[in-house]
Design a protein that fits this description.
Elements: E1 2-5, H1 11-27, H2 37-44, E2 50-59, E3 62-72, E4 81-87, H3 96-110, E5 115-121, H4 125-132, E6 136-147, H5 153-161, E7 168-173, H6 178-188, H7 194-198, H8 204-216, E8 220-228, E9 231-240, E10 247-255, H9 264-279, E11 285-291, H10 295-304, E12 307-318
Parallel strand pairs: 4-5, 10-11
Antiparallel strand pairs: 1-2, 2-3, 3-4, 5-12, 6-11, 6-12, 7-8, 8-9, 9-10
The structure holds coenzyme A.
């Protein structure tokens, strides 16, 4: 079987890629809804602020495994790359995953990257696979789901009415308005999960860049923030995917340290639920990932009605340790 780089995938190759993702999902559907062809096409397409490299393993004309690497920033940027490898279930344990990883690792070295992150579900072969190649688990995430039909509107109304004194709510759809961009970047420093692994400082430019990625995919970003004067004391973000909008995704939520302990986190989340009910009634569920040790955020989500679904892990490897083709 050959591993080939797909620098500019054709429509047929994108369809085949989608079939690999669908076959992997069908064998283990617990991770969420089946991939959608348009979403696959967008995932393989360009993205502002980062580049993507793709490899496929082919058995004759048939695609049997895929590897996608996301390279944020410029070549040689200190930021870690992200990798995702998927192999059709009947063809596993034949070295295909390892060969795709080696091809991708050569691509990472050529781009001057020093580290790479992969996110995988707990209890799947992926953890053993990554550990075999020198990846280490750096973060455990609890996947939680909120079924909006299970949330009584009175609960949302009660939480909203309990507004902390001295704060006001603002909200926006899409990229942050200029007046709040720097304040939002400051609040993003309060996030204690991915930012720690990534290590890149948040500024207004990076905030906009991240939000433009969502817009470019065709997805809708909703943000609710609690302001103290002009400062963002806390905020929450939800993304409603283009296409099947039934399941939205919780993005960042954070409360700046000096404003913690005043129920700002649950207040902004309740305001988000009310906004979505008005603006996007087709949203039926919201999924979220929380660091397993983030007791406050887990408590907020449990109080809102989120229930545990599935644990996942973030793995990190030094690129030097990865195999070469
Ligand atoms: C993870 C995945 C890509 C591995 O693909 P693969 O083609 O089976 O991997 P390989 O055959 O190259 O495995 C290489 C080594 O990894 C380890 N490994 C892989 N699967 C394993 C399993 N189920 N149990 C224990 N070890 C495993 C072994 O050391 C294996 O070598 P060996 O077969 O000689 O013992 C595949 O299981 C998959 O597609 N999973 C679903 C998607 C996913 O979660 N991707 C992870 C994101 S990076």
């Amino acid at each position: 079987m050959d591993v080939i780089a797909l620098d500019d995938p054709t429509e047929a190759q994108i369809r085949e890629w989608h079939e690999v993702l669908s076959a992997v999902h069908a064998a283990d559907p617990a991770g969420g809804p089946a991939p959608d062809p348009e979403q696959t096409a967008r995932l393989l397409g360009p993205e502002p602020g980062s580049r993507r490299r793709l490899w496929a393993a082919a058995d004759g004309d048939r695609m049997v495994g895929v590897a996608a690497v996301r390279l944020p920033g410029e070549p040689g940027a200190g930021r870690p790359a992200e990798i995702d490898i998927q192999v059709r279930p009947p063809l596993r344990r034949r070295g295909l995953g390892g060969r795709l990883l080696a091809a991708a690792a050569d691509g990472l070295r050529a781009d001057g990257r020093t580290s790479v992150i992969a996110q995988v579900f707990a209890g799947t072969p992926a953890a053993r696979f990554l550990e075999r190649y020198g990846f280490e688990c750096v973060l455990t995430l609890r996947g939680m789901l909120l079924r909006l039909d299970d949330v009584p509107p009175e609960r949302v109304a009660r939480l909203l009415a309990a507004a902390p004194a001295g704060y006001r709510l603002v909200r926006w759809h899409g990229v942050v308005p200029d007046e709040h961009a720097t304040a939002l970047a400051r609040a993003k420093h309060a996030m204690a999960d991915f930012a720690e692994v990534d290590g890149t400082p948040w500024d207004a430019h990076r905030v906009r860049e991240t939000e433009e990625v969502v817009a470019k995919r065709g997805d809708d970003l909703y943000t609710v923030a609690a302001l103290s004067g002009d400062a963002v004391a806390g905020f929450t973000e939800v993304v409603v995917p283009h296409g099947d909008a039934r399941r939205a995704a919780q993005y960042d939520t954070a409360v700046v340290p000096e404003h913690r302990g005043r129920r700002i986190g649950i207040w902004v989340k309740a305001a988000m639920l009310q906004w979505l009910a008005e603006a996007r009634p087709e949203v039926r569920e919201i999924e979220t990932d929380n660091a397993g040790d983030n007791a406050h955020m887990l408590a907020v989500n449990e109080e809102l009605g989120f229930r545990m679904e599935r644990e996942s892990m973030e793995y990190l490897a030094p690129v030097d340790a990865l195999p070469a083709l």
